[in-house]
Amino acid sequence: MSEEIKMSAEVERDMRTVLRGVDELLVETEFAQKLQKSRDTGVPLRIKLGMDPTAPDIHLGHTVVLTKMRQLQDLGHQVIFLIGDFTAAIGDPSGRNSTRPPLSREQIEVNAQTYYEQAAKILDPARTEIRYNSAWCDQLGARGLIKLASHYTVARIMERDDFTKRFKGGIPISVHEFLYPLLQGYDSVELKADLELGGTDQKFNLLVGRELQKEYGQAQQSVLTMPLLVGLDGVEKMSKSKNNYVGITETPDSMFGKIMSISDSLMWNYYELLSAKTLDEIETLKQAAAAGENPRNMKVALAQEIITRFHNAAAAEKALADFEARFRDGQIPEDMPEVTLPAGPLGIVAVLREAGLAPSGSEATRNIQQGGVKVDGQKVEDKALQLSAGTYVVQVGKRKFARVTIA
């Protein structure tokens, strides 16, 4: 945008909101000018977020970009929640080292049914435009797809880091995977997006949309990427496949326990990316912790805020009361060994042995028979108990504890 527009105080304030927690905004000055033009004309910007329904549920990692969408919605802009029911059948190759198995139409439809219902817990449904990219992708046909592909070169597609690594490593890349970024980019053409949001792993795809808009004679969208939320393990990005996630449809007790399990340092990252508190309010909390206040209090407040958002305030209060009841009188320590075990379900005897809570299977069985084993505060009476994937506080006697994650 060559036209110089002086930024008003309102736009400067809006930009501070937009940039909160952002990894990158391309191009920042360009988007600021779009905001100013929107202010001057009263025409809201069209803000796009696309999500492929590859799983039936949304977790907190997904809500990072949804929260940013809500902030833009509250600034008065038109947000478009795009459900990629067509592109989900291809599978996003971003960050993958192998071809993603395609989903069936039936799987996609089942997953798509719940996506917006869950996203609506963050977005304002009355001010959200819901679209499905099958509406235009199904109509492209072979001729339209070939025309679309003519707007991008193989050399540009191969600039993607994951494609380059797979090609150099001799790992197969299917031709249909090249179509994914083109189709995601074409969504921006159809929607005439002014800004598209995504995680840092989506940057290439988002930039393809920007380039295709230019090819189709449209004003180019700006691109905003959000950091990938680190999972409960403090290492990998939050992912259902890595079992380090907090699902937004989980029970309040489960959500509370999982959030309380994150490290004190990771807590501040969660505050910045997930909390509705202002940056000044978060800084005040950090200063209080530095001055000696127990960070556990801040973690409790974060857990309650998140549970209130996805359930209600009463559920958040009950989750806190239940949690404190389990830890009252030193029954369960806040700090304990962390253990990750192979994919479940696993029998409780094997869990006790592998977690180092019992030296042998026979000793584990004896502890269960004597009533000395608890899982999440509940006494285990059945030695055949199976634990599915998840994170549990496992206790033997009064002093042996481990936080066990079954992947």
Automatic annotation (TrEMBL):
An annotated GO cellular component = cytosol
Per the annotation, the residue ranges of the short sequence motif 'KMSKS' region are 237-241
Keywords in alphabetical order: Aminoacyl-tRNA synthetase, ATP-binding, Cytoplasm, Ligase, Nucleotide-binding, Protein biosynthesis, RNA-binding
Record's keyword annotation contains Plastid? no
**Which reaction is recorded as catalysed by this protein?**
tRNA(Tyr) + L-tyrosine + ATP = L-tyrosyl-tRNA(Tyr) + AMP + diphosphate + H(+)
Record-listed ATP binding positions: K240
Q: Where is the RNA-binding S4 domain?
A: 346-407
In its keyword annotation, does this UniProt entry include Oxidoreductase?
no
InterPro entries assigned: aa-tRNA-synth_I_CS, aa-tRNA-synth_Ic, Rossmann-like_a/b/a_fold, S4_RNA-bd, S4_RNA-bd_sf, Tyr-tRNA-ligase, Tyr-tRNA-ligase_bac-type, Tyr-tRNA-ligase_bac_2
The protein's GO terms of the molecular function aspect are: ATP binding; RNA binding; tyrosine-tRNA ligase activity
In the record, biological process GO terms are: tyrosyl-tRNA aminoacylation
Listed under subunit, the entry gives: Homodimer.
By sequence similarity, the record places it as follows: Belongs to the class-I aminoacyl-tRNA synthetase family. TyrS type 2 subfamily.
Q: What is this protein called?
A: Tyrosine--tRNA ligase
Where does this protein come from, organism-wise?
A: Pelistega suis
